[in-house]
Amino acid sequence: MAAAVKGKTVIWGVSAGAITAANAAVTGGIITSFEVDSQGGTETVGDEDNDIVSRIDHAAENKISMEVDCTSATVKPAKGAELTGMGTIDGVAFGTGRTFVDSSKVVYNRAGVKKISVTATHYPTMAADA
Question: What is the structure's pLDDT at 68?
Answer without folding.
Answer: 84
